[in-house]
Specification:
Length: 327
């Protein structure tokens, strides 16, 4: 076949819509047809190879300025492909998989360069665990048990933002806006310390130092400003502010191991005991709705259970990791 005929052969493939779809779909669409075509044209392996490379390179060029040749050379080298006088010739039976890797790598690079995707750091604490995470700017966040946060270290200098699910205490260094996002609302500060609780469909923020702006997640721009000792709670879709009283501010006691409850059902207290001590509590349904006002300190399990059960005239029994509360 003359050089002119070879050129036409490659050109016909490069403009064939079915061939283009086949390559761009990572060799999924019309695959039966083109696999048979390759088997029937073994003498045109290099030419089909060249056409595939052309379609891939044009697809990549449309979306990115990355050096596709260098990327391809790395993929080819890792799969043992070789060159000869006719140019780069790849076994077409395995080429589909190599090219699919190439296409996936192209997509990854496009996403990174076009949309600025960077690694997200995820921090989780398990049951009965605590952890303090130091942030890139020197700020810190203390995670209570069964809490999750995520943030972008590489983007931190441009955007100080954390996603929270659970209970955490933040100490924020002064600087640009610092944002804590939750499913129910967000908190915005410049430099301060505060606690955020998002457990069990709850949203509660307590300000310890500085000023804190709190917004609920409903598309409105309404926000509540907190000063030290103030607390805001999302109740029935509304942010309710509890101002600090003289000599009696709303304190963040959990960071020192004290968990307080104000007229809470016993079932909620039990959840916290299970979370802090990695136990399972069995309690009769008739007791679950009992109202409890009080506290327990994290430390000795017996002391904690006594603090909860004694005011309600209840008893408890510990059997390993199982606790039973009875009358």
């Amino acid at each position: 076949m003359s050089n002119r005929d070879l050129h036409k052969f490659q050109h016909d493939l490069m403009v064939n819509e079915s061939f283009i779809r086949w390559v761009k779909s990572e060799f999924q669409e019309d695959d039966d047809y083109w696999s048979d075509y390759i088997d029937e044209n073994p003498d045109h392996e290099a030419d089909i190879n060249a056409a595939i490379r052309f379609v891939l390179s044009m697809s990549f060029k449309e979306n990115s300025s990355i050096d596709k040749n260098k990327l391809w050379d790395r993929i080819a080298a890792s799969t043992g492909t070789t060159q000869n006088t006719r140019g780069k010739v790849i076994n077409l039976k395995s080429f589909k998989y190599v090219a699919a890797i190439f296409a996936a790598a192209c997509l990854l690079f496009i996403l990174i360069f076009k949309f600025g995707i960077s690694d997200t750091k995820h921090i989780n604490t398990g049951i009965a665990q605590e952890r303090t995470e130091k942030l890139p700017d020197g700020s810190s966040v203390k995670l209570d048990a069964d809490t999750k946060i995520s943030y972008h270290p590489e983007k931190w200098s441009q955007e100080r933002k954390i996603t929270l699910n659970g209970l955490a205490f933040f100490e924020v260094t002064k600087g640009q806006k610092f944002v804590v996002e939750t499913t129910l609302g967000s908190v915005k500060v410049l430099g301060t310390s505060f606690s955020v609780d998002t457990r069990d469909n709850r949203f509660e923020v307590i300000c310890k130092t500085g000023k804190v702006a709190v917004m609920k997640k409903n598309g409105t721009t309404d926000e509540v400003m907190l000063i030290p000792g103030d607390k805001v709670t999302l109740t029935d879709g509304n942010l309710e502010l509890s101002k600090a009283e003289t000599g009696k501010p709303n304190e963040i006691l959990w960071i020192n191991g004290m968990y307080t409850f104000d007229n809470q059902p016993l079932s909620e207290v039990v959840k916290e005991l299970e979370r802090q001590y990695e136990i399972k509590v069995k309690i009769s349904e008739e007791f679950r709705s009992l109202s409890y006002t009080g506290f327990f300190r994290k430390g000795d399990l017996n002391d904690a259970l006594y603090s909860v059960t004694w005011p309600l005239d209840l008893k408890y029994n510990i059997d390993g990791k199982k606790v039973t509360i009875t009358k």
